[in-house]
């Protein structure tokens, strides 16, 4: 045999602390056919700075679809069936790098996914630039060992082979045809080179994570042995590995035989289905099959079982796959949503999810039983949703298992007419829905009975669109797209249905009121600015108060939300107003000439607007203008002090009662904003930030110019005649 090794690599990704699925970094690989050994090379590293601490990285593996993980221990939707993912932990201790190998023998071909993440996020809101987070990097590489000339075992044809030694197992493969109801594998004439009875182990199937359903057959001291499999995967290659359990130098000769039992389906012809589809879309026309007087059925009627169909082992219903959007598919039954179900043979529906781009959503299957169609009150319609191959005989003991997979059971009855199943991240494959009528007293009781079940099946990016407290986000890894829910207002879970830590409506209203009404503390600053003739500054404070109020009213995670315009516009205006308010306040304190002050107002506002467009959350967008304005203010104060030959401002009352309280409030506000805010306390710590900043502005604004008189409204707004005095000096020419 000729083995070929191949190597696949992807670029390293920076890991994040986990708060929702979008924080997990996804790696997507494709394992080729005839792979006998798969080896993952997992490399994790961290920075060398003092902020880097020992960390544990969790890595999840899954075949066919992204792994379904739950690091936070939250609840899944009520009708979702979840199987734990296979995961390992990689510890970064004193060493800055860790290399781990994971081996998988006889892996299943197709898509494989790896997801890696750090532990749960602390919830602290970090201002960009104040702290340097430690970089934790992760990279996954894949090595495969592939057999180029794997022997093919033809059905019904015995194949002799020799296992040279225990160190060199024998690999063969057999193709499973469509509609295969069962497979029987036989090992004949198994002897060693010493003419003794052999001891071999046969492994059928490939490994799929998180669960593997390989079937193992051990033959010791027996000449012939066999294994029967029900519902093997349709239209796929099945790997078979034969290992010798004898001594190192003993070779084993075996003869293998694979035979299949094929199920004959009964269904309407493809031509009639195509005509039915045309009727449902355009309506029947006279003279065409399906029109009035034609024997073809209309699209809204379910076909009745004929005697020929009843004799077959399954009844197939034609299903049309309708692609709606990215990771969004609807399945439509050509013969109407109502499906006839009997007890003699299962009714089968094919749900095609093998495009390679369907595994990033949620498959939803809903059943609705028509009570009037069931004549037996105790009858139950059992259903199984399986990948790769369907269940062809449904009863209470099988639990929807096939040869190499475990399906998802559903059932409806007259006492419970509705049933829903949610499959999160369904693996890339052909999915089958099998339905059969079961009677408690035996199948003979309902041989002539028939039930009608309405089937709704669709693929959606996020189940229920993540509900009212979540947002469905479409994520991308290279060319692969998948969806996940980002929850808010304390809600959690895969679809934001876990209300364990959810905020009450009262808490949501309180948060909205605190974050919005705290901006009214700018009213004293506006009043002081107007009273002291700082009208431009008062306009800036009014702008900031308005947009900060309505930005936080729109930014709320719960139901207490009001957006007067686009969210991004409100956020930009809020950030712009906040930074410009600090800018004009410090320049106003500098007491520079008016023309210079207004030039700096305009020029600084334009530069701040540009920097916020480049990086809205950067700390230097706020600190840069503040520091530059402080430099201008200090230079102006030094100039005034040098010119007057005493300290500026000269009044101790100005320092004690205005400047020092204002500066103290400003420093406390910056400390709260930069170091104390978390996701849990944001609504009141940020409200404190609003109050402290607004109060500091009111304290820091300088007094009005001495030559300006206070506002005297009775003199400013007059409606009477006045006698004006001419103070112009008369100039006389002396001759």
From TrEMBL:
Disulphide connectivity of cysteines: 462-472, 487-496
Listed Low complexity bias regions: 282-303
Keyword tRNA-binding: no
EGF-like domain location: 458-497
Keyword set includes Cell membrane: yes
Residue spans crossing the bilayer: 510-534, 595-614, 620-639, 655-676, 682-701
Localization: Cell membrane
PANTHER family found in the cross-reference section: FIVE-SPAN TRANSMEMBRANE PROTEIN M83 (PTHR14319), POST-GPI ATTACHMENT TO PROTEINS FACTOR 6 (PTHR14319:SF7)
Protein name (Swiss-Prot/TrEMBL): TMM8A factor
Gene: Tmem8a
